[in-house]
Design a protein that fits this description.
The complex is a heterodimer of chains A (274) and B (418). In chain A, helix 3 runs antiparallel to helix 5 (113-148). With 274 residues, chain A is mainly α. In chain A, 79% of the residues lie in helices and 0% in strands. Chain B has 418 residues and is mainly beta. Chain B has a domain at 210-261 and 269-307 and 332-344. In chain B, 6% of the residues lie in helices and 53% in strands. Chain B has helices spanning 5-26, 347-350; strands spanning 34-40, 48-58, 61-71, 74-77, 114-116, 120-130, 136-146, 152-163, 169-176, 179-186, 189-196, 201-207, 219-224, 236-247, 258-260, 264-266, 274-285, 290-298, 308-313, 317-323, 327-334, 340-346, 353-360, 363-371, 376-384, 390-397, 402-403, 406-417. In chain B, strand 11 (189-196) and strand 12 (201-207) form a beta hairpin. Chain B is globular. The chains are: A mainly alpha (274), B mainly beta (418). At the A-B interface, helix 1, helix 2, helix 5, helix 6 and helix 8 of A face helix 1 and strand 3 of B.
């Protein structure tokens, strides 16, 4: 266990600059945008205030969030794309670097699965910490906006409504625990499948490329197929109730995740060699 | 330990951040509206689900629309609706013993496709297949289950081979002795097919309405009456002949009329903008295997264009219910002697402007809304169709919708029963 924790720390430590960079970018863009918009709004209101015929309406932080969805969502999308690329890079960097670290990792006196689990855990920490940051940023954005806009025009906004202003936030931060587990469970399964595909490719080069591609394609068809089947109400053809079908599809995802882990461990233990 | 501070801090931040957010989500920051029965039987709203939208407004700026379903148990918002729980109960589940529920699996929810008595349950569907360039073959697919033994029987019987009818519609299934009667509509022609339990087609009965030529300046449309318990054993099927006359307003809908589900058919003005002037009611009697006239409902001022009219036939009467925002009227005709009775209520009597009317299982559910920007009162008035008496009243709580500059307004736009 201690060895695993050390490996997790090792993975987190290696990614720290990129992670802090992503955090900084997100904070800078979102807070900066809020400051600029709020100051602009304040100036506008002061000008309107000078005109006795115009009565400016109340305003809340929801307005800038809703009117600038792209701006607030852009750094989040950058984070998502970076993490997605890093799912591959977290493995390939061990082979392609100044020193091929994979030799040392695989020769460590501990089960090889720890390497796999450490990389997975590190990715989860990155995702979780970025989500936590986004939650904090939403509160900071609200505080900044409220501080700049004059109190007499200000209307308080709830965190739930702030999240609902932006489709990116809605998907990343669903209010329902069930959907939270569902979305992130599906995301983790996809990461596991990609991990396994990488290990299959690394384990049986050069034909491993085809093996990995076939595996990834098969899993894509299966997993995307479950989503399409649910959307197309296939349960009606199968004489199943919708909730029963959902349980079956959830089972398929769990089995796909378990299979990916088993195959990944197997590839790491048997075919990936130094 | 200090060496691992970065990892510890990041993991802790992730756990605390996501954990506290999940707690926040579980607390549900949206209001919990609830239907409350204030008069009458507490079970009147069992299975009733009011579909609505919660609109949040920040000052004058409308923001936030959340679809919600309000029941006597509270409000369920769309975002918290579980995918892993059974939601849509089959309408017949409540009437069937639990061990017979499996029969309902995979079958449509339309109650007209079912027949249920104390001995058996029957489910029917029509299968139409191309049998030639323009001809089609219509096959009845029936599934029966003996309620005492649980024994199931499937039969397939070709009803028509070489018909040119495009979309036959199974409007009713009945059992009489050891015969099954299928009442089928084919492009406004009605025909009853009588089958044995083995699937042998015994006879066909053409249902011919005794209609004369249309009067000048009028035209007719024929609709089957909706029944309050379509799956129950009954002696007759109602047929309404709607005669449209006087030119009135411009049409409000591009469609001549629309049928909403099995429980209520709504009639609006037709494409010419003509108003409904009379309704002649006929019934097809299964026992006598012939059609007989029941009576006529003549148009009055309330049957003007633009008003939505619903209908429902109970065991003793046929009812037409129509409303606008200011009044509700029910006109009923006795199936035994054709006598007509009219009842009416004003918006004031119902507790506010009439929003919508739903007919279900021999009752009328009328939603009336009263209020201002700060409070909104919903009144659900429930009438028994046969007696036209109010049997219950319900409302939605809480009514206060404005706190400071933030207002939360619930708009209800439909009632369904599950």
């Amino acid at each position: 266990m201690k060895a695993l924790l050390k490996l997790i720390h090792f993975e987190i430590h290696r990614f720290r600059y990129i992670l802090f960079g992503l955090m900084g970018l997100t904070a800078l863009v979102q807070i900066g945008a809020t400051v600029l918009i709020a100051i602009g709004d304040r100036m506008e209101r002061l000008a309107e205030y000078a005109n006795p015929e115009v009565v400016p309406g109340p305003v809340s932080v929801l307005e800038p969030l809703a009117n600038n969805r792209g701006l607030y969502g852009f750094p989040v999308l950058i984070c998502i794309v970076t993490l997605l690329l890093y799912v591959f890079l977290i493995w390939y960097r061990e082979w392609f670097g100044k020193s091929t670290l994979i030799y040392r990792l695989l020769m460590l006196p501990m089960p090889r699965r720890n390497v796999y689990l450490a990389k997975l855990a590190a990715l989860l920490v990155f995702i979780g910490s970025l989500l936590a940051l986004q939650l904090v940023l939403l509160l900071v954005i609200r505080a900044v906006f409220n501080a700049i806009v004059p109190d007499e025009y200000l209307v308080a906004a709830s965190l739930a409504d702030m999240i609902n202003t932006n489709e990116v936030f809605q998907i990343l931060l669903p209010l329902s625990l069930e959907f939270f587990v569902l979305f992130y469970g599906m995301g983790i399964t996809c990461v596991l499948v990609l991990f396994t595909a990488v290990l299959l490719e690394r384990g049986r080069r050069p034909r491993g490329t085809f093996l990995a591609a076939a595996y990834a394609a098969g899993m894509t068809v299966l997993l995307v197929g479950t989503i399409v089947a649910r959307a197309a109400s296939l349960h009606e053809w199968l004489h199943l109730y919708a909730y029963e079908f959902t349980w079956i599809l959830a089972g398929i995802w769990v089995i796909a995740a378990a299979f990916a882990v088993w195959l990944g461990f197997r590839a790491l233990n048997r075919t990936v060699s130094v | 330990m200090k060496r691992y501070l970065l990892s510890i801090l990041l993991a802790a931040a992730a756990l605390v951040g996501i954990g506290s957010y999940c707690v926040y989500g579980a607390m549900n920051p949206y209001p919990d509206f609830r239907m409350v029965v204030r008069e009458g039987d507490e079970n009147l709203l069992d299975g009733a689900i009011f579909g609505g939208t919660l609109v949040r407004e920040y000052g004058s700026w409308k923001y936030g629309r959340y679809y919600a379903e309000v029941t006597t148990e509270g409000t369920e918002y769309e975002f918290e609706r579980s995918l892993f729980k059974k939601r849509n109960r089959h309408p017949l589940e409540a009437e069937l013993a639990p061990d017979a529920h499996a029969f309902l699996r995979g079958k449509r929810h339309h109650a007209v496709n079912f027949y249920l008595d104390d001995r058996m349950i029957v489910y029917g569907e029509l299968d139409t297949r191309q049998a030639g360039e323009l001809e089609r073959e219509v096959t009845a697919m029936l599934e029966m289950m003996d309620l005492a033994t649980g024994k199931r029987t499937d039969i397939r019987t070709v009803l028509e081979a070489g018909t040119r009818e495009r979309s036959p519609y199974l409007a009713d299934v009945q059992r009489f002795g050891d015969e099954l009667h299928l009442f089928i509509e084919m492009e406004n022609q009605y025909r009853v097919y009588v089958l044995t339990f083995e699937g042998r087609l015994v006879r066909k009965v053409d249902v011919q309405l005794p209609l004369g030529p249309e009067e000048e300046g009028t035209h007719r449309r024929v609709w089957l009456a909706s029944n309050h318990r379509p799956h129950a054993a009954k002696g007759v099927v109602g047929i309404q002949v709607m005669t449209y006359g006087r030119k009135t307003a411009q049409p409000t809908s591009p469609m001549p009329a629309d049928i909403y589900g099995d429980e209520a058919a709504n009639f609006v003005i037709d494409t010419n903008g003509d108003a409904l002037s009379r309704v002649d009611l006929y019934v097809y009697d299964y026992a006598e295997e012939r059609i007989r006239p029941v009576g006529t409902l003549h148009a009055e001022d309330a049957l003007e264009a633009g008003r939505s009219i619903s209908n429902q036939m109970t065991d003793t009467h046929h009812h037409l219910v129509w409303h606008d925002s200011n009044q509700l009227r029910i006109k009923q005709i006795s199936l035994s002697d054709g006598s007509v009775r009219t009842s009416g209520w004003t918006a004031d009597q119902l507790g506010g402007s009439i929003g919508y009317v739903t007919l279900h299982d021999g009752k009328v559910y009328v939603l009336a809304v009263d209020g201002n920007g700060y409070e909104k009162h919903f009144a659900v008035n429930i009438f028994d169709l046969d007696s036209s008496a109010m049997v219950g009243k319900a409302g939605i709580e809480p009514t206060i919708v404005t706190v400071g500059d933030v207002s939360e307004t619930l708009y209800l736009h439909g009632l369904v029963f599950r």
